[in-house]
Structure formats: C-alpha cells, structure tokens
Amino acid sequence: MARLAVDVMLKPEILDPQGQAIARKLPQMGFEGIAGVRQGKRFELVVEGPADEAAVERVRKIADTLLANPVIETYEVHVLSDN
Fold first, then answer.
1. pLDDT attached to residue 82
2. Residue 6 belongs to what domain range?
3. Taking the model in full, what pTM does it have?
C-alpha cells in the first residue's frame, strides 16, 4: 500500500478571508515578519499497490472530481510513502 497526499489551495486571485484573518492576528500574538497567509486543505489517501504513475493519476482524477473545485482551487499530489 502507498500513501499519497493532495494539497488543495485557493487560486492566488481568489480572496482568502481566513488567511487574511490569520495574517492580521499574527503580529498581535508576537509573530512578526509574515507577509501573507493562504489557508488550504490536505487529504491523505492510502491506495492499494505501489505509488506508480497509475496510482498518482487515479488520485489526480479523485482530486479533479471530488477534492478540489477547479474553478477556484489548485492542487498538488505528493507521494508520502510507497510501502
């Protein structure tokens, strides 16, 4: 079995109010030097078999159809382990 992750983020041109709220709060908490924050989501999937190109492509199809909204979000697929 292999573990793959899908990191989903809002496209840069889409307003991210949660990220903005976090960015505003950081200096109040003593964290300086942060120019911006974007909030996202992460999904980890365990697939049967190796993390080969077929498994990565299957996870991409899942992300395209269920995990991300392609109108406002982008995503990246990462192989975490190939056991």
1. 87
2. 2-82
3. 0.88
